[in-house]
Write a structure and sequence with these properties.
258 residues; alpha+beta; seven-stranded mixed β-sheet; three-stranded antiparallel β-sheet; 10 strands
Length: 258
């Protein structure tokens, strides 16, 4: 266990580059520990499962979807206990640490709103062309699924090659997540950070794991989806890093790549 007020961003990013991430044992725990799972969940970006019912929900724009407009609120919502999870691993150290990453552009959130109420979404860490999903939450039916669909579309449009989900769950598996050995995950991660072609799709199985590559890493373009949305939907006005295109643009992109 390590006691921090917050984790230094350079240390935190270095840990992610080596396949390690921090967690707390509970929301009130003052400590964090470093985690390196034996089995790792990833969601192949060309393997997102867009069911007919989810596609209808996305196209109907049941939620107003934004990005990076309420990062701290999104983390706080993920940290709240709920009926399906009476406690979480997001403590004050985690909140402060990821807020620092957000301030320097290495963390992002996707938010789902009904009227002015935040009802679901997700947040995660971006390093090079790898995105590490940290937590997602739903306070309205399908909100987290819609947020994940918008995230996958944004990562595809922006050139990301790897979406890390940390641990497999039935919810994530239903959306296309798979589980691989940590050694295979590290081979994929190192290949993506090094900029190897095709790393997101095929690298990994049985590959030897070398040393993590050194920064700087070629970054994905978080705003590319907004430009695509503006081109495909003339009535869509991109709002810097805060907008998200209409649902039919998201559905079209996911349908083309799945």
């Amino acid at each position: 266990m390590k006691h921090f007020e917050s984790i230094d961003p350079a240390l935190l990013l270095s840990a992610y580059a080596q396949g390690i991430f921090p967690m707390a044992d509970g929301a009130d725990d003052p400590s964090v520990h470093w985690v390196e799972p034996r089995l790792r969940a990833i969601l192949p970006l060309d393997g997102f499962r867009l069911s007919h019912s989810l596609k209808k929900t996305i196209v109907a724009d049941r939620f107003r979807v934004t990005t990076d407009t309420a990062f701290a609120d999104m983390v706080a919502l993920c940290a709240e206990p709920a009926g399906d999870r009476p406690t979480t691993w997001i403590n004050p150290v985690i909140k402060a640490s990821y807020d620092r990453l957000f301030q320097i552009g290495h963390a992002h959130s996707v938010e789902c709103w009904q009227e002015d109420e935040l009802v679901g979404g997700l947040y995660g860490v971006s390093l090079g062309r790898a995105f590490f999903g940290e937590s997602m939450v739903s306070r309205a039916r399908d909100a987290s699924k819609v947020a994940l669909a918008h995230l996958v579309a944004r990562l595809i449009a922006g050139g990301w090659k790897l979406l890390d989900c940390q641990f497999i769950t039935p919810h994530l598996a239903s959306l296309g997540a798979i589980e691989i050995r940590q050694a295979d995950y590290l081979a994929r991660l190192y290949s993506v950070l090094a900029g190897s072609e095709g790393a997101g799709a095929g690298a990994g199985a049985g590959a030897a794991v070398g040393s993590p590559p050194s920064p700087p890493f070629v970054a994905g373009d978080w705003g590319a989806l907004d430009a695509l949305g503006a081109a495909d939907a003339p009535d869509f006005v991109a709002a810097g890093a805060t907008g998200s295109p209409p649902g039919y643009v998201i559905a079209q992109l996911l349908t083309k790549t799945s």
